Amino acid sequence: MNLTLYVWRQKNADDKGRMEKYPAKNISSHMSFLEMLDVVNEDLIEQGVEPIAFDHDCREGICGMCSLVVNGRPHGPEKATTICQLHMRHFSDGDVIYIEPWRAKAFPVIKDLVVDRSAIDRIMAAGGFVSINTGGVPDANAIPISKTDADTAMDAAACIGCGACVAACKNASGMLFVAAKVSQFAHLPQGKVEASQRVRAMIDQMDIEGFGNCTNFQECEAACPKEISIKFIAKMNREYLKSSMAPTKG
Amino acid sequence: MKLDAKVPSGPLADKWTKHKFESKLVNPANKRKYSAIVVGSGLAGASAAASLAELGYEVSCFCFQDSPRRAHSISAQGGINAAKNYQNDGDSVYRLFYDTIKGGDFRSREANTYRLAEVSVNIIDQCVAQGVPFARDYGGLLDNRSFGGAQVSRTFYARGQTGQQLLLGAYSALSRQIGLGKVKMYNRAEMLDLVVVDGRTRGIVVRDLVSGKISSFAADAVLLATGGYGNVFYLSTNAKACNVTAIYRAYKRGALFANPCYMQIHPTCIPVTGDYQSKLTLMSESLRNDGRIWAPKKQGEDRAPGDIPENERDYFLERKYPSFGNLAPRDISSRSAQEVCNEGRGVGETKVGVYLDFADAINRLGKDVITERYGNLFDMYERITGEDPYTVPMRIYPASHYTMGGLWVDYNLESTIPGLFVLGEANFSDHGANRLGASALMQGLADGYFVIPYTLGDFYARSGQSGISTDHEAFKQTEREAVERQEKLLSINGKRTVDSFHREVGKIMWDNCGMSRNEAGLKKALETIPPIREEFWENVKVLGDNDEFNQSLEKAGRVADFLEFAEIMCHDALDREESCGAHFREEYQTEEGEAKRNDKKYTYVAAWEYNGVGKKPNLHKEELEFENVELATRSYK
Ligand SMILES: Cc1cc2nc3c(=O)[nH]c(=O)nc-3n(C[C@H](O)[C@H](O)[C@H](O)COP(=O)(O)OP(=O)(O)OC[C@H]3O[C@@H](n4cnc5c(N)ncnc54)[C@H](O)[C@@H]3O)c2cc1C
Ligand code: FES
Q1: Nearest ligand to the C-alpha of residue B187?
Q2: CATH no., domain B1-7+35-262+404-630
Q3: What is the pLDDT of residues B424-468, one digit of tens each?
Q4: pTM above 0.90?
Q5: Which CATH superfamily includes the segment(s) A3-35+51-110?
Q6: Where are the domains of chain A?
Q7: Which ligand is nearest to the CA of B74?
Q8: How far does Cα A230 stand from its chain's mean position?
Q9: How far is B612 from chain A (nearest CA, A)?
Q10: What distance in angstroms lies between residue A161's CA and the mean position of ligand 2's atoms?
C-alpha cells in the first residue's frame, strides 16, 4: 500500500518545529509501524535528507521506549498496543497518517519525535522503591501474600513507564504512572511499611516536574498500552489521604 | 599469557564461603574514597550499581537508553531459576549446578557454575523483599514452572514479564541510590572506549547522545554490564540497540574475548515474513510446558493445520526425545526444527517454521488456565501475525537470542585487564556452550547483587586507588581518537545506509556461523566479511553532525564494530573442531545427527587476544578441570 505521512520535524529543543509531508511507498501489511518508518528513513537517507528521529528499542511492547502520537492518539489507534506492536494491516492504501511526539511540559522535545522523559526517573528516585539493602532479607516464602493481592500488585506493576498517559491527558498529568507504582507497593506487605512517605514523596516530585493535575477525564486509561486501570488512581488518593492523617515524621 | 582463573581451592561446596572469608575488606569509613564506573543498567548493571552504592562506594552508572529501566533485560519473559526446592520435587543447589554444567555441554567452569546455583536462592529472597510481584498460588506462596533442560520446577515468574519485574526491582533499588545522591546516573550516554594506563583500567570515554559531546570519566574500577552481541546477525530477539561495542573496545584495549562463537539460538520465535523485518519476536520458552511442537509428515503439505489428521503429524521432539519431549534444550529443539524445514516439511507462507500447538492443553486444562498462564504472549502473537493462537497453532522458528561468549573473566569476574570487571551477559562465565532457559536473569542478578560486592572490595583493598585523573594524556588521546572516528563516519558520505551493511553482514553470519557451521562456510565468511567492512568505510552514508542527537551516527559506530567482531566469531567457530552445546559443526556429529564433543582436545575456554583489525587473533586456552562431575554425553532421550 501507499501512504502519506505528515511527520513532526524539529532539529533540537530550541527549534520551533513543523510538520513535513513524506510519501511511504510499497508498504506491506505485515510490517510493523516502526518498520514502515524504517523504510521511509532508508529512502530519506538515500535522498540525502536526515532520517526521522524516533525512540524505540525492544520493539516488543515492553521497554516503553517508543513514543509516537499517531493521528492524535498516543501509540495509535489500537487498544492495548504500543506503537512498535502496531502492524500496518490496520491501515489501508491511500491513508494519511499524522505522526507527532508526546506533548507535555514535563517532556521537552529533544529532536523530531524524541522527548526527554527523565522526569519519570526523578519521580521514581523520590520514592518508587522499598528501602532495603542487598542481603539480610527474609526467605521469600516467609510472608505469604494472598494471590489476589499479588495479582493486583502485578496488574499495577505492568506499567512500562512510556508516558502515554501523560501525552493523552489534557492536563498532562502523571497520575496514572505514579498511581500504578504506589498501588503495586501498597498491595504488598513489603511495600506497606513506608507507604505514607512514598505516596507523598512521589506526588511532591510529580508537582515539581510540572505534570498537571488529574481531573478525571480517563484519557490516560484509554491510551495506556498495558491497560493500567484508573482504579489505581483512586487507590493512590486513598493512600494519600491516609498519609495526611498519619503522624508526620519529625 | 597464562590465564589464571583464580578458583579457590577446597571442596566445591565450600569454595565461595572460603573465598569470601579470605577476601580483603575495605574499612567502611574508606569505602567512599573508592569509585566505580558501571556501564549498563540491565539486571547486572543496575543490581551492581545499587549494591555497591549501598555499601558506600562512589558509583556512576551509564546507559544508552533514556532511562535505566529500559535496558534489554526488561524484555525477558519466561522466568528465573533458583534452587529453592519449594516444590519438594528433589531440587537442590547441586542439581541446579549439575543441570547448568550439563546443559552447557561441559564447557563451563565448575566453581563459577556452582556459585551461581548457590546464590540463586538469595536472589529470590532479595526480589521479593523489593516488592517484585512473582506469581503465587492460592496459599499465598510462590509458584514455579519448568523450563527446558530441567526435570524439576524451579522457575519463578511474574506472568510473562519476569525480566520486566526483576529489572524494575533492580531499577527501584538503583533509583533509591540515585535519589540519595550515591549513584550518579548518566542516561543517553554511550561508552565509546576504555582507557588503560600501565596495564590497569582507568576509566572510559563516553558520548552524550543528546549533545554529542565526547568526554572522559575516571574511576578506580570499571564494570561492564553491557549485555550480549546477538545483533551481529542483524535479526535477533534482542532489542534493536544491543551491540558489542563496549566489550569489543575493551577487547581492543587488551581484554581477552572468550568463546565468541557460543551463541544461543532460541527455538520459539515468530518466523520472518519479509526483507523489511527489523527484529524477531520471541515467544517465551515457557510455552513449551503446554504447547506441542509438530510439523506435517508430508513434504510440501498445503492443508491448513486443523485439516491435517493426527496420524499425519510428526511431533518430532516427542518422537526423538521421549523423556524430555517438548522441553528438550534449546539447541536440540532449534536444530530439530531446522532439519524439519530443510526436509521440506516447514509450514506457513515461507515454509520456514513449525507449529506450536495448544489444542490438547486447551482441551485438558480449559481456555481460562491457558489464558492465565500465557495470555499476554498469545495477545502478542496475535498482534504480530494477525492469527489467533487459541484456534490456530502458532508458527515458530529459531532465532539468534543469547550470547554465552563474552569477555573472559576469572572467578572474581575480573577480565585480563586489572580493574576491569565484566558482569551479566557480557561475560562468558557460567553457561558453557549453551545456557539453560531462565538462567540468564539468575546470572545477571547473581553477579550484581551477590558476587561483585565481595570481589570488588577485595580488588580495592589490594590495588588501592587508581590515582589517574581525566587530565592524563591517555584520556585526551582516547577522546581524540573517538572524535576522529565520529568525524570519519560523517565525512564518508557514500551511497549505502548503515542498516544495509548490517543486514548484509548479518546474513553472512546467520548462513555460515549460525545454527550449524562447517569449515567451508566459515572460511567463506572470513573471506566475504573484510570487503564488506572496507566498503563500509568507503561507501556508508551517515547524515547530520556529531554535536547533536544523531541516531544514524550511533548505529554506524556499532555496526562498524560488528563488522570487525564478526570475524572473531568465525575464527573461534573454525578453531573448535567439535560440536558442543549451541556450537554445531556439521563435520562432528553422531550417526543420529547429535552433537559430538571432543573432550580430549577441546575442554578449554578459547580466549582470544586482539592482534589488529582483520588479523587472526591469538588464542589462549584455559583448560577446564572437572573435579566433581563426570563428562557424560549429553542425552535428553
Ligand atoms: C526476548 C528475550 C527474552 C528473554 N527471556 C529470558 C528469560 O525468560 N529468562 C532468562 O533468564 N533470560 C532471558 N533472556 C536473556 C536475558 O534477558 C538477558 O541475557 C539478560 O537480561 C542480560 O542482562 P544484562 O544486564 O547482562 O544486559 P542488558 O539487560 O542487555 O543491559 C545492557 C545495558 O548496557 C547498556 N549498554 C550497552 N552498551 C553500552 C555502551 N556502549 N555504553 C553505555 N551503555 C551501554 C545498555 O544501555 C543497558 O543498560 C531473554 C532475552 C531476550 C532477548
Ligand atoms: S520499542 Fe519497546 S515498547 Fe515499543
Answers
A1: 1
A2: 3.50.50.60
A3: 999 998 999 999 989 999 999 999 999 999 999 999 999 999 999
A4: yes
A5: Beta-grasp domain (3.10.20.30)
A6: 3-35+51-110, 118-132+143-245
A7: 1
A8: 14
A9: 32
A10: 11
